[in-house]
Design brief:
Blueprint (H helix, E strand, L loop, with lengths): L2 H11 L3 E2 L2 E2 L9 E3 L9 E4 L4 H10 L3 E4 L12 H5 L3 H13 L2 E4 L2 H5 L1 E3 L2 E3 L1 H10 L5 E2 L7 E8 L1 H12 L5 E4 L5 E6 L10 H10 L3 E3 L5 H13 L5 E4 L2 H10 L1 H9 L5 E3 L10
Parallel strand pairs: 4-5, 4-15, 5-6, 12-13, 13-14
Antiparallel strand pairs: 1-2, 3-6, 7-8, 9-10, 10-12, 11-14
The structure holds fe (ii) ion (2 copies).
Length: about 280
């Protein structure tokens, strides 16, 4: 199958619309980030991010298509003009590697978040995959990224949940904030906590619904982190386990292995390659 056909079939498998609006092919993030698509696909690698080591591993596996969720060249829109102009050395070396290995990179972001088939409808493929890979079969998956995955569980602690996700997501560690002995019954994957965002809705929701444990994508020290630290010091059942944005979404890229044959309607060797925990700790 041609690489272009692989991509078309995967897009077709997904819902392809968001909040009632079809994904705009001009504006979508789901673009070819590198390489050409008019050739036979020799194998597929799925990953969160086509890092240098992922590219090397794809070559070792004989795969020429990397399906990545995030950008390739460290900037929104994957613009390359400024890197060419400044002859950025890391860019030039990464580009050469992809050229030498004949790698094509396709970004698969908007389509997978738009939904994969589920019980006659669609469900966010990243967050559903995350829940499945973690063993949270009963999790609620929501279209609102500020509360993307909600889990009600038997009483546990942040330490226990931390152990579970470290093992399931294959991580080196986690940033822990708040009361690590908290009684946890409600867990929320709560999207990006970024500078400049309106923090009132999420803090109000935590307080109102008594959410105990938060797993954010991006996280800053301002706002939510401070709030959870104070809540924890007041003895409340509140904690954050911060794995990092890429670590948290990557299980959804692993879960593609479960459905890609259905999407392609034939088998192409597909391997999940973990970009590797973004962080090491000392
Ligand atoms: Fe992301
Ligand atoms: Fe995402």
């Amino acid at each position: 199958m041609r690489i272009s056909e692989v991509i078309d079939r995967i897009k077709h498998y997904c819902k392809g619309s968001w909040m009632g609006q079809p994904i705009d092919e001009e504006k979508t993030r789901d673009k070819i980030l590198f390489g050409n698509t008019d050739r036979e696909c020799t194998g597929i690698v799925t990953t969160i991010y086509a890092s240098v080591d992922v590219i090397r591993k794809a070559h070792e596996l004989g795969a020429n298509l990397i399906i990545a969720h995030e950008a390739l060249l460290w900037n929104r829109g994957d613009r390359r003009g400024w890197l060419e102009e400044t002859q950025n050395k890391t860019y030039l070396a990464k580009k050469k590697l992809m050229e030498d290995y004949g790698i094509t990179v396709w970004r698969f972001h908007d389509y997978i978040h738009s939904g994969i088939p589920y019980k006659g409808g669609y469900i966010d493929g990243i967050f559903y995959g995350l829940a499945q890979e973690t063993g949270w079969d009963h999790a609620q998956i929501c279209e609102d990224i500020s509360g993307a995955v909600y889990v009600e569980c038997e009483e546990t602690t942040p330490r226990e949940v931390g152990k579970l996700i470290k093992e399931k997501w294959n991580l080196n560690g986690l940033k822990c904030i708040g009361n690590m002995d908290a009684k946890v019954k409600k867990i929320l994957v709560c999207g990006h906590i970024a500078e400049g965002m309106d923090i009132k809705p999420i803090i109000s929701r935590i307080d109102r619904e008594d959410i105990n444990l938060l797993l954010p994508l991006e996280l800053i020290d301002f706002t939510l982190t401070e709030y959870i630290k104070d809540s924890g010091q007041l003895g409340m059942n509140r904690a954050i386990l911060a794995a990092g944005h890429f670590n948290l979404e990557e299980p959804g890229m692993k879960y593609i292995l479960k459905w890609i044959d259905d999407a392609l309607k034939e088998h192409i060797d597909t391997t999940y390659v973990q970009a590797g925990d973004m962080y090491t700790y000392m």
